[in-house]
Amino acid sequence: MASNDSIYNMIPIKQLAKLLGISYSGFAQAVREGRVPAVRRGGDWYSSLQNIIEAAAAGTIRLPPRLDENPKEDDNDDDIDD
Asked: Is 3.30.700 the CATH number for 7-58?
């Protein structure tokens, strides 16, 4: 885990998986295998966005492609007939 991580930067991996749009079970397996640095507190695993970015950059995990922030719209609002 990155040295600048603190408990305040940690997020439950279940929430991280949801935020990233990835499978929780696959993400949890990557954590258990040590491909994503995480800590266990109680019964839950926690990691940080920085850990995920570093793991993706190192190639130990793959993230889904980024969604287009400005998708082209096929429908033009000016063409709407009243």
From this structure: no
